[in-house]
Structure formats: structure tokens, C-alpha cells
């Protein structure tokens, strides 16, 4: 059975709905997976109607009540879109309301690494032994990957989708061909990051020669590196640094993206720049649709709070000085 296929009584409707969404220019990758889970649920309950009932929706909600609140909300959002599509052909179809209950009262606070911790992560990545023994590229691969995620803030999926030809060492820059929501963008690189990538590329091509269309980051079988493999190895690196349990959900590979955003804001504060004027630039660099999504990456770290406090004090002192002068 294909993992990403539909087999329930509504399989044909599900296929048509996904095809319609893709014709609109949407990738609809993760959303399709959510519909696959819904399709499997329909198979389990042996649903044989061409419309969706309220009772069925309630049972489906209960079937994934063990999942995180945000996950439940996303899953029901996709099902609601499909139900709205079905209701055009059969008014009996129930269209569930937005699941306002699936808002976590205590959302997990993302981990933001310090610069010293990032350096330790890179160092411990370099200590990973070749596995299997013939795959000598492994330690340099993870050193390069961790460093790249921190210095660019790119998503892990974007990094794993990179091909050799997407790296332009002359300017230097990276081409993200298909980011989130199908957006493509160029990411400029610092010269130090470009140097590390060039060193990695030489060893990668020495290990496994490949054309420009080949993946930049590879597994021991010379195939594109998978997220599951990266996740497992990053957990090993965190344990080696004694960071695996720093927060309720622990740091993840995505924490490097949060760290990049916070450190960039901190650098702007230290330089005395207007943060609000530069947020749109950070939003574009991160590949966000608008600045609203970038605000999620702005966290009150001790260093950022200190810089904010210092700026307020400077502003306050100037204000008081002006008032005294005018008097």
C-alpha cells in the first residue's frame, strides 16, 4: 500500500480535492498527509457515505485527542477545508467549526542557544564517529549542517533539499528553490560560512562524485539525507553537550532557526539600529509570508532584555536632559 494514497469510500473525492488545491499553485504536501490520516480513519470505521456527519467529525476529534493542541488544530483545519469542498455537492455534509479549543494554554517556549552553546554543538558534531566506518564524511557533514542552520536561519527541510548546483560560491549565496508555501529565494552567505561550505563540498565530492543536480547533504548510501536521520544525530549531539533536557520539550533542530533570529535582533540592538524598521528584511530573509510570522521568533532572552533596558535608559536620560535644558 502506498503511504500517500487514499483507500476509503471517499478516496476519489480526496484525490480530486488535493489535485484542485495543487492546481491553485499550492504544494499541499503536509496537508495531504493530514488527509491521509483522515482517510485511514474512514477505513477503520468503515464509512460508506459520500458526505461527512457531525458524529463522524466528533469521533475523529476524539481519535487524536492524545496529540499536541497545535497538531490537532492543524489536522482539523485541513479536514474542514475538505468538508467545505464536499458540501458544494451534498448540503448534508457537516463543515466543522474552527477548533478554538485546540489552543495550548501553556505553549512550549522555544530554546535559544547562546553563542558558546552553538560553538559547542558544532564541536561535538565534529566528534561524531564515521558510521558506517566507510562513511568518513559524517562528522564534517553535521558540523557544516549545524553551522549553516545557525548562520542562515534556514529551515531544516530547505537545507536538506539543497542540491550542489544551488550553492554559488562566487557571490557567495544559496538558492532555496522551494521554501515553505512554494517560495523561492536567494540567501546571501558570510565569507566564513562560504569557506566552510566549500571545504565540505570538496570532501563531499571526493567521497561521492556527483553532478550539480545531486543533493548537497547525503547519507552513507549517497542519497539525500532524511529528516529522521538528522533528528537522531542531532539528539546525539545534544546529549554529548548535556543539552537534551534544557526545556519542557528539549531543544530541536528548529531551535537553531530561533537562535539565528534572536541573535540577529541582538546584533541590531547593539549597533543602535531601528529594530522595527529592519524586521521586514529579517522576515524576507527567513522566507516568511509577512512580518506577523517573524514575531514568533522574537524571544525575550537575557541578552536581548539587557540591550532593550540599555536603550530605554539612554532614551530616558536624553528626555530628562532636554526637559532640564528647556526649563
**Through-space gap between termini:** 82 Å
Label the overall shape.
globular
CATH class of the largest domain: Mainly Alpha
Annotated CATH homologous superfamily of the largest domain: Intergrase catalytic core
- By CATH, the topology of the largest domain is hpI Integrase, Chain A
Total beta-strand segments: 3
Q: Compute the number of helices.
A: 13
- The portion of residues forming beta strands comes to under 5%
Q: From the alpha-carbon coordinates, what is the Rg to the nearest angstrom? A: 24 Å
- The class by helix and strand makeup works out as mainly alpha
What is the N-to-C order of secondary-structure elements (H for helix, E for strand)?
A: HHHHHHHEEEHHHHHH
Major β-sheet profile: 3 strands, antiparallel
Q: Supply the CATH architecture of the largest domain.
A: Orthogonal Bundle
Low-pLDDT ranges: 101-105
Number of domains: 3
Mean pLDDT: 85
Give a written overview of the molecule.
Helix 5 packs antiparallel against helix 6 (138-152) and helix 6 (138-152) runs antiparallel to helix 8. It contains 13 helices and 3 strands; from the N terminus they run H-H-H-H-H-H-H-E-E-E-H-H-H-H-H-H. By secondary structure, it is mainly α. It has 3 domains: 11-87; 115-252, hpI Integrase, Chain A; 256-326. A hairpin with a 4-residue loop joins strand 1 and strand 2 (173-176). The N and C termini lie far apart (82 Å). It has a 3-stranded antiparallel beta sheet, with no helix packed on it. The longest helix has 25 residues, at 302-326.
Amino acid at each position: 500500500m502506498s503511504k500517500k494514497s487514499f483507500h476509503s469510500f471517499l478516496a476519489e473525492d480526496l484525490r480530486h480535492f488535493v489535485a484542485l488545491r495543487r492546481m491553485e499553485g499550492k504544494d499541499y504536501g503536509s496537508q495531504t498527509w493530514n488527509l491521509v490520516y483522515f482517510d485511514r480513519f474512514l477505513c477503520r470505521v468503515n464509512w460508506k457515505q459520500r458526505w461527512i456527519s457531525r458524529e463522524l467529525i466528533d469521533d475523529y476529534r476524539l481519535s487524536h485527542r492524545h496529540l499536541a493542541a497545535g497538531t490537532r488544530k492543524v489536522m482539523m483545519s485541513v479536514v474542514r477545508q475538505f468538508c467545505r469542498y464536499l458540501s458544494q455537492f451534498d448540503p448534508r455534509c457537516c463543515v466543522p467549526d474552527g477548533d478554538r479549543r485546540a489552543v495550548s494554554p501553556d505553549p512550549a517556549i522555544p530554546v535559544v542557544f547562546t553563542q558558546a552553546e552553538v560553538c559547542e554543538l558544532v564541536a561535538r558534531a565534529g566528534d561524531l564517529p564515521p558510521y558506517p566506518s566507510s562513511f568518513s564524511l559524517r562528522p564534517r557533514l553535521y558540523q557544516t549542517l549545524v553551522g549553516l542552520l545557525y548562520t542562515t536561519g534556514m529551515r531544516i527541510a530547505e537545507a536538506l533539499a539543497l542540491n550542489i548546483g544551488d550553492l554559488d560560491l562566487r557571490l557567495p549565496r544559496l538558492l532555496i528553490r522551494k521554501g515553505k508555501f512554494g517560495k523561492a529565494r536567494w540567501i546571501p552567505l558570510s565569507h566564513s560560512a562560504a569557506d566552510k561550505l566549500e571545504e565540505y563540498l570538496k570532501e563531499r565530492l571526493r567521497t561521492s562524485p556527483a553532478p550539480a543536480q545531486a543533493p548537497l547533504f547525503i547519507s552513507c548510501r549517497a542519497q539525500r539525507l532524511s529528516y529522521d536521520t538528522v533528528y537522531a544525530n542531532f539528539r546525539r549531539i545534544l546529549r554529548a553537550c548535556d543539552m537534551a533536557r534544557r526545556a519542557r520539550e528539549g531543544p530541536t533542530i528548529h531551535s537553531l532557526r530561533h537562535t539565528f533570529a534572536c541573535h540577529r535582533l541582538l546584533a541590531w540592538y547593539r549597533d543602535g539600529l531601528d529594530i522595527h524598521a529592519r524586521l521586514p528584511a529579517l522576515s524576507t530573509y527567513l522566507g516568511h509570508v509577512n512580518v506577523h510570522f517573524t514575531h514568533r521568533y522574537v524571544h525575550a532572552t537575557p541578552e536581548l532584555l539587557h540591550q532593550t533596558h540599555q536603550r530605554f535608559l539612554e532614551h530616558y536620560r536624553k528626555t530628562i536632559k532636554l526637559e532640564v535644558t528647556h526649563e
